[in-house]
Amino acid sequence: MRRPGRQPRIKLAAGLLALSAAAAMVVTTSGTAQADSQHGKTPKIGHVWTIILENKSYEATFSGLNQNSYLWKTLPSYGALLTQYYGTGHYSLDNYLSLVAGQAPAPDNQNDCPTYKNVSPGTPAADGQVNASSGCVYPASTKTLFNQLDDKHVPWKIYAQDMGNTPTRENAYACGVPGDPSGAGVPDPGGATPTDQYVPKHNPAAWFHSLSDNPRDCADVVPLNGLPAAAGHPAESGMAQDLKSIKTTPAFSWITPDNCSDAHDATCQGDNLSGDPNNHQGGLYASDLFLEKVIPEIMASPAFQKDGLIQIVFDEAFPPYKMYGNSIGDYTGNPPASGLNTPTDTAQSVVACCDELPGPNTTQPGDQAFGQDTTPGGGITGAVMISRFIKPGSVSAQPYNHYSWLRSMEDLFGVKHGGTDGKGHLGYAAADGLRPFGGDVYNNPSGRALPPAPSGSITYPAVAGVTDVGRPVIPAGSVYAH
Amino acid sequence: MNTPHIAASRRTGFFSRSGVRRLAVALAAVPVALLAAGCSSAKSSSDQSATDVINKLGAVPIPSAPQTQLTPSADESHPQLVAVGSAVAVTLPSGTGTITALGPTEDLPTPLPATMPTQVAGTITLRVATKTGTVKVTTTDLSSRDDHGNDIALTPVGVAQAAATAGGTADFVVRGTFSSGAAQITLREDGHVVAVWDFNIELD
After folding, report:
1. Could you tell me if B202 lies within 8 Å of chain A, comparing CB atoms?
2. How big is the A-B interface in CB pairs under 8 Å?
3. How many domains would you assign to chain A?
4. For position A101, which CATH number holds?
5. Mean pLDDT for chain A overall
6. For residue A291, which phi and psi values (nearest 5 degrees)?
7. Which of A205-219, B19-33, B107-121 has the lowest mean pLDDT?
8. Closest CA to A92 of A265, A245, A234, A235
9. How far is the C-alpha of B68 from the C-alpha of A328, rounded, in Å?
């Protein structure tokens, strides 16, 4: 059923779209679309930006509880909301290692590595894993997505906000490492300071010798706002400058906001981009301020408009709130039978999907977090993706995790050789039957730009097949019902 | 579980009049930017390809930042649940104004130890700004609980209450010991919940 008053506004929006396109035609003639029109195939996405946020359960982020309207409400209406996106472990660092190298959690990285030291013994294990009974920095033989992109001559960059603000904490000219990991290692700063809110545990490059030992790779690991020249090091541009032209925009950009902007710190040690020096509110409020700044920057770039994909993911889920809407979770005067007086259920923050395996170094990827006995994974975080190849307002209930993400990126950038399975997939990204992002995500293969639509305008169910999209549910009144 | 929420709202909804206006701005921005690039000698053939795609497929609309959120209103019958740092406009029998919970400010050891503690002492500030009458906050109005359901004892830093009269402000600071994880602080008036602020304690 059509909602009164909706259609005229759609027509107005369509008219504006046409006007907009017409304006662009002043300077050019029509060109060739880059989209693959075959249903179910990954379209020809040429540029990816992955923004990784911190420590929130799906319910914390996407239920309107936390002053983050831009992420939970606005952005899903411009892209796809993945309601069943999972972290792979607890706490932070192991998730980053799963994302970029397919490595399973190990004891020290589950503890976020307070000491920056090499993995031991560092010997190969089955399924592309590495034996890591202690330590956190993987040997040069452990490859990452970034090494794979190097081999394919695909330009990439890691942008890490605040990295190098305090040079004695981390070396911005050397992949942001906090020091030499050999021997007993060095202290790894786990928290932010008022002037430097970068933490190495949220920068994947610092944890692999295959990157940190290579100056050419480290030249692509830069502070978000760039890096001035220093002795032996040329200046490096920041993201805003790189976005000005397709030629200067990396095909793959990994964005690590600082410990405030990534929603990690509840109260920020330093600036939260609010413009108010007395405002140090962190959490999802701060990450919204960050996203409100960088998402329009990225989307206005030629590279994004041509063939871009933005991904907003979280590393791990943190306990969900029992509180919904304006209910009062801590009010203990409810009738006993109401169930409202019980403590928060944390199960959602330690579950796993996608047949996640624990790996050789721990039986509990979720590190028995939050007092739970059985913790197979990092919990449900949800994720948002935006692209001209995604219908605005899409929702997918298909389970994905960080290994799915890695496999998706390897496939997207055409990495087809090597890896653990000989088909270009590293570690557990090579697991049999692991599903990469499919037609439930890339559901607008023509690439035709569409106006925003309410989240849930088209919803894909979870299905068992690796390539099966399932039958989407399109509610009456949806723009896609026509 | 995890029912997706409908995103269209009065404030951010695309189908609202203001939403259409914002879309107009967003849609106009991309071609204008590319047009500007096209007029410069620096425009590359690769950037031309972006313009070509926009010509054929349209410009992807860009979401603007939401407008400043309205301050939620609460009274004894209509409590509000918000994130720490948020102001709540309160209407109480004694007066009206806003109350904001700030913090917690954690007393982390210096220098930070290699292994972080699982608990930390800290303070939460209740900032009162009174519009009419008098608005006060006392220790007995406050309670706190973590995500395991454990009560967090709060003790005042200094006097056991803060009050502000019309046009005035006052801060009321309480101290507690917080465990890593999620928690909340609740403000009551005459035993009725008025506001709940949730927050996380990150000690990793």
Report:
1. yes
2. 316
3. 1
4. 3.40.720.10
5. 87
6. -65, -40
7. B19-33
8. A265
9. 25
